[in-house]
Amino acid sequence: MDAPALSNMQMRDVETLIHPYTNMQAHRATGGQMIERGERIYLYDDQGKRHIDGLAGLWCAGLGYNEQELIDAATEQLNRLPYYHIFGGKSFEVAIELAEKLKEKFPVPMARAFFASSGSEANDTQVKLAWYYNNAKGRPEKKKILARKKGYHGVTIVSGSLTGLPNNHRAFDLPVDRVHHTTTPHYWREAEEGETEEQFVARLASDLEALIEQEGPETIAAFIAEPVIGAGGVLVPPKGYFEAIQPILSRHDIRFIDDEVICGFGRTGEWFGSQTFNIQPDSVSLAKQLTSAYAPLSAVLVDQDMAEALEAQSGEIGTFGHGFTYGGHPVGCAVALKAIEIYESRRIPEHVAAVAPRFQQHLARAGEHPLVGEARGVGLIGALELAPDKSGKSAFTPPAKVGVKFQDEMQARGVILRALGDTVAFCPPMIIKEDEIDALFEPVEAALDATMAWARSEGLL
Ligand SMILES: Cc1ncc(COP(=O)(O)O)c(C=O)c1O
Known about the structure:
Elements: H1 8-16, H2 24-30, E1 35-39, E2 42-45, E3 50-53, H3 56-59, H4 68-80, H5 93-105, E4 112-116, H6 119-136, E5 144-148, H7 157-162, H8 166-169, E6 179-182, H9 187-190, H10 197-215, E7 220-225, H11 241-251, E8 255-259, H12 273-276, E9 283-286, E10 298-302, H13 304-317, H14 330-345, H15 348-366, E11 372-378, E12 381-386, H16 401-412, E13 415-416, E14 418-420, E15 423-426, H17 434-441, H18 444-457
The chain binds pyridoxal-5'-phosphate.
Residues 58, 118-120, 123, 152-154, 226, 230-231, 259, 261-262, 287 line the site of pyridoxal-5'-phosphate.
């Protein structure tokens, strides 16, 4: 079949934009999908068709698309002070207030907040801070960072190196040295024949210990992890995982960086993923739902030990030579403060916990379909991993075609999801109601049936 003729807007798009995470060649033939406006959990395209946004934008628009209080907070701040910075000791109250609020909300004591604009910048900063810290402590050799295969931490040179996904490295000459990846905590895929979940966790702990021994604990500064791996396929850690690995890291004086960029602010049914999974981090990365995505803002929270080391080292050097023009942007800070106020007053984490069982039941039911290898999730985040069978040991070849087909079948039925290889992620705005969760899943069975018929016809099954 010939590709459909592109509309004028699609042509302009193809001729002008470099689209992230897009096959640019294929995009030239098919054209893009134009989104015109949003309302609560719905997006409207340029044909006026309504879609449920099953991924909250990119796991971030937690309060949906027309939250007037966020718009008002941004407008008021734009009228008062549309921009200023906090370089060279300058400051303004909305940044101070947000830092105070984040320290108050995070369950593990944190001493200071550093602001940037994106999750990648936050994690890049985490690595630079870990290096600066160890130089301050007189341990210049303690610089390596451990991450996990399939973890996602962003795309800058260092955060892209922390990310443990081949397509983020391939042809970009990444990862840089100093970054090492340990085993993915995904029981269904990674467990060995006959291994119980408990035994699997013990093996992950011993893999980590072995990597630390091999590299030398005196050379390792930090370990970074998402409570739930998001873009790597929505991988919920097995029971006892963080409890098993944290003592190993502490024993070797390796700092724990908690990447809460997706999990933070209610996604798991608690304020932070660290509470759901019993993590005691030394520093934290926040972004996405920090502002419900209405303004780009990220934050790094650091403990007292780090704060003291930064202060001492900057005193020695004469400055803390790091910072972004838009780090602590007043509009971002005002929107974040309002978003947090809404999460509190409308009890959004509690709402997520209340509706999560319905969401997870739908996922589990979809998991019974023969095309679904595993259904998994926690709170209002989940995924269906499509596979030829349910063994956890088989996968489609070539990969990523079946997942994209299911994503497209869902989109044709009015639900926007995101295919991550052959795993399709669900992460709707946190304000979603129970009947809307039913509507989100309503087309799943028909879309799976259509995808399975297509996979057979293509010889993929
Ligand atoms: C856990 C996590 N960390 C970091 C990032 C990178 O954030 P950004 O795309 O804002 O740079 C993401 C983005 O999806 C993420 O999911």
